[in-house]
Amino acid sequence: MARKVAVLLTCEHGGNAVPARYRDLFRTSGRTLASHRGWDRGALVIAKDLRKGLRAPLIAATVSRLVVDLNRSPESPTLLSRWTARLGPEERERLLREFYWPYRARVEETVRRMNREGRLVVHISVHTFTPVLRGEQREVDVGLLLDPTRKPEVAVCRAWRQLLIGEPLNDRARFNVCFNEPYKGTDDGLTTYLRSKFPASRYVGIELEVNQRFPRRGGRMWNRLRSRIVGSAYLAICEVGDPA
């Protein structure tokens, strides 16, 4: 009998909102909040598509990563941006207590609850990345970030990559889908933290990274990519069990 699988979706950088209490800090931020440094454009759209297609719970945040980066460990030098890093110790603690710790605790407790129900958790953390970084063009369309030492993650990502590549988009091109690009799946992040709490037999953590050139341009290709992501996700997850 196939093992029952529970799917959990998260989106740590779904918006670029700044809570009223901290808006004065960002008076000099200019266009940074609207850039890739402030949020992951299109990530929440994809996450909501997956929520509908997989009928899975979604935990998402719309507070800008420049306020506090929910995808970083508490010790990370980029947990706070140069705007919020100027806060005093008490204000920093208040910020973390209000936004950071509740989000992280909610995700971790959801994984624990699903485990208690006897299900393997497949966690998909949805992100997007800027097409150009430090003057270098990124050729990756979709990245699947994983820990290559955890066999269930490898199984899901191998299947998902093949399904995402699919048929040619035109006479010359397919989606360029890569493992651990443009970042490594073992870098500091929420999935990396959760792997330290749950064995591979109970937790599969995958970061989905989509090139922001698709949501920026919109139109048919953006819609087609979103459709393929959703349509392929269920079949990929079936590699490790029966999504229930």
Describe what this molecule looks like in 3D.
This protein has helices spanning 43-54, 89-116, 151-165, 190-195, 213-217, 219-237; strands at residues 4-11, 58-60, 120-129, 132-133, 136-137, 142-145, 177-179, 203-211, 242-243. With 244 residues, it is α/β, with parallel strands linked by helices. The protein has a single domain (4-243), classed as Zn-dependent exopeptidases (Aminopeptidase), CATH 3.40.630.40. The longest helix is centred in the middle third of the chain and has 28 residues, at 89-116. The protein is globular and about 50 Å long. The model has no long low-confidence stretch (mean pLDDT 94).
Q: Return the structural class.
A: alpha/beta
Instruction: Give the overall silhouette.
Output: globular
CATH third-tier fold name? Aminopeptidase
- Based on the coordinates given, report the CATH architecture: 3-Layer(aba) Sandwich
Helix content: 25-40%
Query: Could you tell me the mean pLDDT?
Result: 94
Q: CATH H level: which superfamily?
A: Zn-dependent exopeptidases
DSSP strand tally: 9
CATH class: Alpha Beta
Terminal residue distance: 13 Å
Rg computed from alpha carbons, rounded to a whole number of angstroms? 18 Å
Given as residue ranges, the uncertain stretches (5+ residues, pLDDT < 50) are: none
- Biggest pleated sheet: 7 strands, mixed
Strand content: 15-25%
Counting DSSP H or I runs of 4 or more residues, the number of helices is: 6
Query: What is the domain total for the residues?
Result: 1
**What order do the helices and strands follow?**
EHEHEEEEHEHEHHE
